[in-house]
Amino acid sequence: MNALSPVPETATDITPSGEDYAIVKQVIELITIDYREQPSLDAIAAELGQSPTQLQKVFTRWAGLSPKAFLQAVTLDHAKRLLHQEELPLLETSLEVGLSGPSRLHDLFVTHEAMSPGEWKAKGGGLTMRYGFHPSPFGLALVMVTDRGLAGLAFADDEGGRDAYFHDMARRWPNAHYVQDSDATAPYISRVFDARRWACEEPLRVVLIGSDFQIRVWQSLLKIPFGKAVTYSDVARDIGQPTASRAVGAAIGRNPISFVVPCHRALGKSGALTGYHWGLTRKRAILGWEAGKG
DNA sequence: GACGGATTCCGCA
DNA sequence: TGCGGAATCCGTC
User: Cα separations (Å) of A19 from A112, A134, A155, A164?
Assistant: First the structure.
């Protein structure tokens, strides 16, 4: 869509182009086969048929980290450290306070509201949902907005599968009225993925449309500070149902606003990345990318 | 009611 | 450690 406006490619560009992710994704898949081996840059480049120099450049532009540092950021050990860094991160962080803690300085500034139970029962009836596809640092992104704010954010693995990804989202609110409108959704993409705009004065408006339980879970996720992680049982405890960790997992899996509601920061108790609706590779990518911004 | 999880725990190489 | 199986709990349809 935006082929006419070239993005300047400088090392300091914190809004990486969508194409970089295609390379990064392959790298992550390679190192995940056996992450203990930590293959050399040369080996990875050879495997992908790229020059090491070029690969290094793309990688650093995308991640803000050298490939080596990135490899370390996606190991199990590192994930465990994220979990234990801070004892109970969920209890003290107030979303409304937003910018109070230094770690949140680099985080996306968000306010949210939830749809009423009645509106949820209507399954989107009476709601106009504008949507569009845009390049993002994690592949093609599908954005859905209502007049109350951002309602959906999904990732697509391939151009050709747009319909499938659209339906994956649209069936969550089957009675909504869907209108393709990339002009309406484009501003959200840059607001969400351009780290320079995360802490701007005006918070990103988000609307959570889900069951009562799901909304409580998603609100809990919104409180996880940037660069931290929690376990499913942490979330269960936070919403006052300490034994519901499995149900929490299911609810997290239905988070409609990926990345913004940071469901990628929920890990298994062992630190393992136990699942992600849009693929474990993407979950690793997001966590590693965040490591480069922290 | 039944179903099935983006869990967890335990036991065994 | 890592892996597999069972226990168990809960939201959803």
Answer: 31, 12, 14, 21
Between CA A88 and CA A100 the distance in angstroms is 17
Is any atom of strand B within 7 angstroms of residue A259's beta carbon?
A: no
Cβ neighbours of A240 (radius 10 Å): 9
Closest by CA position to A99, among listed A195, A193, A199: A199
Contact A253, A210 (CB under 8 A): no
Tell if A155 CB is < 7 Å from nucleic strand B: no
- How would DSSP label each residue in A229-277? -EEHHHHHHHTT-TT-HHHHHHHHTT-SBTTTS-GGGEE-TTS-----T
Residues 66-125 of A with CB under 7 A from strand C: 76
**Alpha-helical segments (H) within A171-209:** 182-193
Q: Backbone phi, then psi, for A205, in 5-degree steps?
A: -90, 130
Is the C-beta atom of A269 closer than 7 angstroms to strand B? yes
pLDDT digits (tens, 9 = 90+) for A200-214: 778 899 999 999 999
Average pLDDT by stretches of 10, chain A with 294 residues: 40 55 91 74 91 93 88 86 64 38 60 92 95 96 97 90 93 96 97 87 91 95 88 95 97 97 95 94 94 82
Catalytic residues of A: 263
Closest-approach nucleotide to residue A270, Cα vs C1'? B8
Nearest nucleotide to the CA of A268, by C1', is B7
Q: Which nucleotides of B are covered by protein (CB under 7 A)?
A: 4-9
A32 strand C contact, CB < 7 Å: no
Q: Is the CB of A30 less than 7 A from some atom of nucleic acid strand C?
A: no
User: Could you tell me if A244 and A224 are in contact, meaning their C-beta atoms sit under 8 angstroms apart?
Assistant: no
